[in-house]
Amino acid sequence: MKQLYFEYDIQVNRPGLLGAVTTLLGMLNLNILQVTSIGQSRRGFLLECEHPEKMQALARCLNEVESIKVAFLRETTLLDKIALKHGVRLNVTGANPPVYSFVREELGLLINFLGDILKKGGNTIIGIRGMPRVGKSEASIAACVYANKRWTLISSTIIRQTMRTHLSDEESDTDKVLLIDAITSTLRGTPAHKELLSRILAGPGIKIIEHPDVLAQNENFSLANFDLIIELRHHPDEEIRLENPSFNAFDIS
Fold it and tell me: How far is CA 22 from CA 46, 58, 59, 127, 160, in A?
């Protein structure tokens, strides 16, 4: 059995629409594992399908239904799972790397999203943009807890300034999440700290880097090296400014 994701946008919100769609799914022997409202005008379904041709038949049938418009009919992605769990689809741009935007009141959503990425492990570099005291560090650490991942602060201003110059064998475990504050590292880092940072950036493992643009401006490292960027704001219209960043201006997250 194969799991697939189906999401549609409601064009005409008539009575019985959901029942009609679920009846069609049942007639095609597609098992509904989960159904959720996505925002104000969409519904998402997690489906189980034994025969791929059933999904092709579903797509043909849905094209004839004027009350809905198919948004997605595909293998389930991480974003689909987040949409089913929280009833909201993440705001993502098509840039390289992709940029996901959150506001502080969505910290729970951000923690789940980031935690699910951390669970996958592998070699992943994640950047987090945001102004002071918006919750960058707390979201990163909470996501590690959610993903049951150990973490190490390479550079940080949580409680006090941290700038590591070496790691123990245990701390060098590639399954551990390394947390880096690019402003602390690039503007205040000692030569020994910057040497460690260079080795970390060139090596395997999971890294979460606050202020990725500052790192790209000051080190031999480009935004193209990131797998994704997260932007966290106090409110949707907040501008994330990086002009002449100072350590004091970004003393805590």
Answer: 12, 11, 14, 40, 55
**In the numeric block, which tokens belong to residue 209?**
């880097």
Range with lowest mean pLDDT among 39-43, 54-58, 72-76: 54-58
Angle subtended by helix axes 52-62 and 17-27, to nearest 10? 150
Instruction: Report yes or no: 180 and 209 within 8 Å, Cβ to Cβ.
Output: yes
Give the pair of three-digit tokens for residue 128.
Answer: 């987090």
H or E stretch including 196?
helix 191-202
Phi and psi at 11, nearest 5°, equal: -90, -40
- Residue 204 is encoded by which pair of tokens? 């395997």
Structure tokens at 36: 């959720």
Provide the CA 252 distance to its chain's centre, in angstroms: 22
Assign 245 to helix, strand or coil: coil
Q: Are strands 2-10 and 42-49 parallel, antiparallel or unpaired?
A: antiparallel
Its pTM stands at 0.83
Q: Tell me, what amino acid is at 231?
A: E
Tens-place pLDDT, residues 56-66: 899 899 888 88
Strand partners, 179: 153, 208
User: 243-253: per-residue pLDDT in tens?
Assistant: 544 545 444 44
